[in-house]
Amino acid sequence: MALPLGIAGTWAYRRFIFGSVSQELRARYTGSLLGVVWAFIQPLTLIVIYSVIFSKLMRPGLSGYDDQPFAYTIFLCSGLLLWMFFVELLTRSVGIFVQNGGLLKKIQFPRLTLPIIALLAAVSNYAIIMLWFLLLMVWTDFVPGVVVFGALPVIVIVAGLAVGLGLLGATINVYYRDVEHFTSVLTQFWFWLTPIIYPLDIVPASVRWLFEWNPIFPLVAAMQDMFLRGNWPEWHTLTYPAVMSLGALCLGALVYFRLGQDMTDEF
Amino acid sequence: MNSDQALPIAQGALSLRGVTKGYRLYQKKWGRAAEWLGLGNHHHMHWVLNGIDLDLAPGEALGVVGENGAGKSTLLKLITGVSRPTAGHINVGGKISALLELGIGFNADFTGRQNAAHALRLSGVADEQLSGLLVDVESFSDLGEYFDYPVRTYSSGMQCRLGFAAATAVRPDILIVDEALAVGDVFFQQRCYDRISAFREQGSTLLFVSHSAQAVFALCDRAVLLSEGRVVIDGAPRAVIDLYNAQVVAKSAAHGVTIQSLPSDDAASAAGSGHTEGDLPATVGSYSAGSARLDGVAVLQAGEPAAAVLADRPITVRARVVFLEAVADPHVGVQVRNIRGEVLYQAHTHGLGHKLGDAAAHEVLEVDFTFIAPLMPGDYTLTVGVAAGGKPGGAVERSLFRHQDIASFSLIRPPDDDFWDGIVNLRPQVAVRRMAESENGG
């Protein structure tokens, strides 16, 4: 008897997946008075706070853009929105089996539909926010042009990293709920160890090696390159994150298929 | 996974071979992680199912009974495929639909229609069929305009109606029903049973899990009793329910009780005391604690032993009890069941407000129960038991002996009886009043 563990049955459940994603987006945007506005208020708050505080504090940090008041905001948004997409997807993925435990132990359906729903919902969300970001760029005369398409491979790599680590965490989280807590701690450190709200220039050379290990860093840097400077990403810098992303996916899949067999026994 | 070993199986058939399920229990929290890393063995197994063999033919209806913890839910989880067996094979022919919990996965903020559509997609329904099925769900759930209101505005009964309607919109090859049906008002329950019966007529196989003997009798043509992860008996619902009931009694008995669990060929027709002294009665579900036994039960009408009795005259059931040892405050009980095994009446002397007085060893008591049985003409069986220690509220403390189906009688329609149908003759008074003619002249 085939357990609904693999990918084979997932295609047959595409209607369920799309239905769930649209439900999730509708739940997020139609339940409240301000609806879709809320989706931007959270990132907007962060962006405004960081813009005001850091663009004043660290003006010399963003060299070459002293005459452009929105340069820091564009720089910030490029990295921060990508990071928020990463964290949202990672956090959602890590909790996905535990949160759907009731469903998993009662109804037989392909389990991989759950992370796929999380992925599609996060991507849709990110796409909506990015549209607003592009509007902001047009309004502030930072029109990056055709290089925005360079964001696509970056997003794919980030998504792979989040889903891979998410699947790994989600499976272990079924047995040890510590993973959820650990994830929120980890992402805090990770955030501050990524040059998102500050440029790499202000990091002392003695600790730069730490950033070289961070697979998110080249991705964030590529986004900043594209949106702030209008340059295509330096493709070779994406090799390391791409390998890490693939590695995370393999590791996540390995752990999921090895340990996820009896996850419903834990609910 | 066993998918590669799946044998071809008929549509609607179900086959379990040596299905075993154990859960790993870890003494230390770190045990599991240590095992992942290959650092020794830190668990012991808790076996829930031990080698279940079960075959269902297409269209068969099997009742699964058993006490809490017998492994019923685990068995259903394995069959529905949400959990996998530790050993053994499960072979399922066709689409399974499981009513384990109604309304699972509903989102309270969405309307009944949206949730129903979502539930249908979750069960793998294609988009082309969706709108047609939603019409069916809407009419069956009978929610009216509430169908387009958020589910959070529903009563629990309405949620169950929606859940049942959505879960049964598509006829499955195998339908698995847990006791989820004990919800909603009586009319909706009736419709649920009707729909299940209709599925059966159209060829669906049914697996019905229940504590309720009535429901198993009504829906199933075969039953199994699960106990400690094994199939104890697999046969006619009646014998299985008898054994189950005996098992429940034995569990609550203060001292050792032996249960007859071997199905005899003609258990139902074993009228009269078919046992010798000290022996356990031959009928399934009988039990004995060794301190009392029955020395015969007779059915009498007009003072004469009778196999066929008139429904409108008093019947006497005369039980002769032999005490093998001194028993304080003994009581004798009687149970009347119809041919399907449904209990029509049961009571014991304590519940009826009689005291028999302490019994000495080797004392013999004769107890008469005289009653009129206003029942449908047909065959009925009598089960007689002995217990001890009347408790306030009408219960007894210990069951000592029970002889399942010790006697039987045929009820004959009295010659001047009314024409009626059902189970009990309620003998209604009929009053008719002729009212004034309707004013708008119908």
Write structural notes for this entry:
Chain A has one domain. With 267 residues, chain A is mostly helical. Chain A is built from eleven helices and no strands. In chain A, 66% of the residues lie in helices and 0% in strands. The longest helix of chain A has 27 residues, at 113-139. Chain B is an alpha+beta fold and 442 residues long. Chain B has three domains: 3-58 and 70-96, no CATH class; 97-227, P-loop containing nucleotide triphosphate hydrolases (Rossmann fold, 3-Layer(aba) Sandwich), CATH 3.40.50.300; 258-412, Coagulation Factor XIII, Chain A, domain 1. Chain B has helices spanning 31-36, 72-80, 112-122, 127-141, 156-167, 186-201, 213-219, 237-252; strands at 14-26, 43-56, 61-66, 87-92, 96-99, 174-177, 205-209, 222-227, 230-235, 258-259, 287-288, 292-301, 304-305, 308-310, 315-323, 330-338, 343-348, 364-371, 378-390, 396-412. In chain B, the strands form four sheets. In chain B, strands 10, 11, 14, 16, 17, 19 and 20 form a seven-stranded mixed β-sheet that branches. A six-stranded mixed β-sheet of chain B has the order 5-6-7-3-8-9, sandwiched between helices. In chain B, strand 16 and strand 17 form a beta hairpin. In chain B, helix 3 runs parallel beside helix 5 (156-167) and helix 4 crosses helix 5 (156-167). Chain B is globular. The N and C termini of chain B lie far apart (71 Å). The chains are: A mainly alpha (267), B alpha+beta (442). At the A-B interface, helix 1 and helix 5 of A face helix 1, strand 4 and helix 3 of B.
